[in-house]
Design goal:
Layout (H helix, E strand, L loop, with lengths): L4 H19 L6 H24 L7 H21 L6 H28 L1
Helix pairs in contact: 1-2, 1-4, 2-3, 3-4
Length: 116
């Protein structure tokens, strides 16, 4: 599982985008999802690059937090550069949703594997 954390993070980011677009009635077209997701996916890649350069696997909560903060910071910066919204409430929701689903499993994983 240690080498699959990036895939979990990617699924979380795509879910964040799809749920957000649906809740704001923007539709779930492939083009719409891509137009909303690309800044966050690039931010996720930047976060994983930082983790990889540090020689980490991404499995620890601290690694996940680094990926999360980098993903949101880069994603929001890219959104601002192309004229997409970066409201404070949106940043808070991005941190909360992605944080819960990216860091929660990392918190629970040692407990699950210890008892398995």
């Amino acid at each position: 599982m240690r080498r699959w954390w990036w895939l979990l993070d990617l699924v979380v980011v795509v879910a964040f985008v799809v749920i957000g677009r649906a809740s704001h009635h923007h539709g779930e077209t492939a083009a719409g999802i891509v137009s909303t997701a690309w800044p966050f996916v690039l931010g996720l890649g930047a976060g994983w690059l930082v983790v990889a350069v540090r020689g980490r696997t991404g499995a620890r909560v601290g690694d996940g937090a680094l990926v999360l903060v980098t993903m949101v910071a880069v994603g929001m910066a890219l959104r601002a550069l192309v004229g997409q919204g970066t409201a404070v409430a949106f940043i808070a929701v991005a941190l909360a949703f992605n944080g819960l689903l990216m860091l929660g499993p990392r918190l629970l994983w040692p407990l699950v594997t210890r008892h398995a």
